[in-house]
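lol ok so funny story. i was supposed to be doing the assay writeup but got distracted and ended up predicting the structure for this chain instead. priorities right. anyway since i did it might as well share w the group, maybe its usefull for someone
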Amino acid sequence: MSRSVVLHVPAPDRWREALSPHLPDVTFVDLDHEPAEEVEAAIVWKYPVGALDRFANLRLVQSFGHGVDFLASDPGLRGVPVAKLVDPGLTIAMARYVAHAALDHSLLAPRFRATQADRAWKPKRIAPPGVAAVLGLGAIGSEIARVLDVLGFEVRGWTRSASDRTFAHSHGYDALGTVMADAEVVVNVLPLTDATRGLCDAAFFAAMEAGSLFVNVGRGGTVVEPDLLAALDSGRPGHATL
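and the output, tada:
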């Protein structure tokens, strides 16, 4: 018996062709499929909010990307299990991006580039890597924490709820300031939810060390951009990589 699954993603014909050999019992259909009662699951990316409400027998929604904020904003999905993709290639690429930014900051590379441009020789002793706070310990955040640990940073992780990790970590909003205290680098890898929207605000940046680095690879809506710009002017943080 064939199962009907909504496929609403970029280049749907390409993905239908790629997925069909692996799911021979599945018929991929569009959002306007009738009868709606036949649809049991949906693979989607940024669909019109409410478009899935008509599927009364929906038992699973699979996000076509790492993000699920567009699903969390759909009240019609309350109680429907939601899954997201975890792409190992993207996870590694994000970790490399953060590692590059953290090392660039820790090794005083901006200072040396400036003196190089001035054709000046101003040697300065480079201290060992300091504390790196990683906010959000999903697949990407955990890999970032692992890589920074290998590079010699003292990694502190933070999650909104308790989790089991092999490195030092805390959870709950009361612990956020402790995790960020004296951190040389603060990495935001948080998803966008009602709880995290605007989390990185003026008070957040005021808790950072003077001259430190803020790296945002989480959702843009978690950062209050005017507050970040004002914070950079004040020197807390001293630099930002977005």
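The CA atoms of residues 201 and 226 lie 9 Å apart. The chain has a mean pLDDT of 90.
back to the writeup now i swear
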